[in-house]
Design brief:
This protein is mainly α and about 230 residues long. The protein is about 55% helix and about 0% strand.
Length: about 230
């Protein structure tokens, strides 16, 4: 019952993901409306100025397809994080995003790296590995659901397609795995089944055999008039 209390619905479960969605679309609309190009605020590796992209890059997208592809996974995965892992959700989301950006800045090619996909890979990795590590049946089910929906994303942590920041994907994936290991003891855990004995159990010995006192029940006799 104690673990049941750890899963409680809050309006923040959907409010925060929707605010994230609104923010990335708002930035893109401002770019289109006023003719801005915010790409220069993305992560530019090994450049001091490029570090500002650690904060700004998740909100910047190159085109409508890029933005649309990131929108649904961002909402779904962040909602799962806030609902099932609320004790560590903010640490994963905020600190994880910063670390993903720093890792990308450290290892990526010399180009502007933009988009929320690094955060999406962070969430995907954390949710998947947390379920596997903790072995709680609810979390395992969520892990399987995430793999079913977004399992094909794994290929994009490798340089399989030109123009995609696979370094950002890889950084998010690695940070998510690290956080899943770090926070494995916090929140829902594998349910340990406990068994209580009843009066029926007292009829059997340790080997499961019926006790002799029960097996040798008295024989009923009928009086016969002579």
């Amino acid at each position: 019952m104690e673990q049941e209390k750890q899963i409680t619905y809050s309006k923040l479960v959907w409010l925060i993901p929707l605010l994230l969605l609104l923010s990335i679309w708002l930035v893109y609309i401002i770019e289109l409306k006023f003719g801005f190009n915010f790409n220069k605020y993305g992560i530019y590796p090994q450049s001091l100025k490029g570090l500002r992209g650690v904060v700004f890059s998740p909100f910047i997208h190159g085109d409508t397809n890029h933005l649309a592809n990131n929108s649904v996974p961002l909402v779904v995965l962040s909602a799962c994080l806030l609902f099932f892992y609320r004790e560590v959700a903010w640490k994963v989301l905020l600190v994880g995003t910063i670390l993903t950006g720093i890792f990308t800045w450290s290892i990526a090619r010399e180009s502007y790296h933009i988009g929320a996909s690094g955060v999406i890979y962070l969430l995907f990795s954390f949710i998947f590995f947390s379920g596997v590590i903790r072995k709680n049946y609810r979390l395992v089910a969520i892990s399987l659901g995430v793999v079913f929906l977004y399992g094909s994303m794994i290929w994009y942590v490798f340089p399989v397609k030109e123009g995609i920041s696979w370094e950002g994907h890889l950084s998010g994936f690695v940070v998510g795995l690290i956080f899943a290991i770090m926070y494995r003891k916090i929140g829902l855990q594998k349910l340990e089944h406990t068994y209580t004995s009843s009066e029926f159990d007292s009829y059997f010995d340790e080997d499961g055999n019926l006790k002799e006192s029960i097996a040798e029940s008295p024989t009923s006799q009928t009086d016969v008039d002579e």
